[in-house]
Amino acid sequence: MQEIKEQVSGIFREVIEAAGLGRGEIIVLGCSTSEILGAKIGKGGSEEVGRAVVLAALEIARGNGLFLAVQACEHINRALVVEAECAAAYGLERVSVRPIPAAGGSCAAAAYEIFENPVVIEHIKAGAAVDIGDTHVGMHVKFVQVPFRPGIKRVGEAHVAALTSRPKLIGGERAKYK
User: Distance (Å, rounded) from C-alpha 7 to C-alpha 177?
Assistant: First the structure.
């Protein structure tokens, strides 16, 4: 578990820096604990691994003044667990569901247990996301999404990818950008 925590912490630090996220912004975690353990996604989850991943991600997110949103599985429409403070700050509509390992996944269930005041929402537009196990988090990252490949390529057996985002470039050839 310690190695998983260290890998997740390193990935989150790298993605936050690459994305240039500032205080109060949101980073999404999508994770398959089944994939981390070498099983097919959704077929061998682990509550212990889910807890380790969420604790590591949450520590780095909070340490950087960010909100962590944890994506659930397709059984609850890839809804996200966030702190009520995040939902209020961003005007996010709550839904009535409580993630459990069999319907939501081990990480979402762990987030619901670990967060101080958890709520579940359906949609979010975060500044960046970490995807451990090819859970497809892109629907939760604001436009324009920029693929990012962290230096750590795997957590356990799970492939790792990430997305950052940037503002749209508008105005054509005469426009100036930073």
Answer: 35
The CATH number assigned to the domain with range 2-167 reads: 3.40.50.10360
CB atoms closer than 10 angstroms to residue 91: 6
Distance from C-alpha of 50 to C-alpha of 34, rounded to nearest angstrom:
10
Q: What is the pLDDT of residue 51?
A: 98
Spatial CB neighbours of 30, under 8 Å, sequence gap ≥ 6: 71, 129, 130, 131, 132, 133, 135, 136, 137, 140
Model confidence pLDDT, tens digit, residues 148-166 = 999 999 999 999 999 999 9
Give the model's pLDDT for residue 97: 97
Q: Please check whether residue 136 is in contact with residue 30, taking contact to mean a CB–CB distance below 8 angstroms.
A: yes
- Domain positions in the chain are 2-167
pLDDT 10s digits, 65-97: 999 999 999 999 999 999 999 999 999 999 999
And the tokens for 22?
């500032």
- Both tokens of 14, joined, read 């790298």
DSSP state of 37: T
CA distance 19 to 79: 23
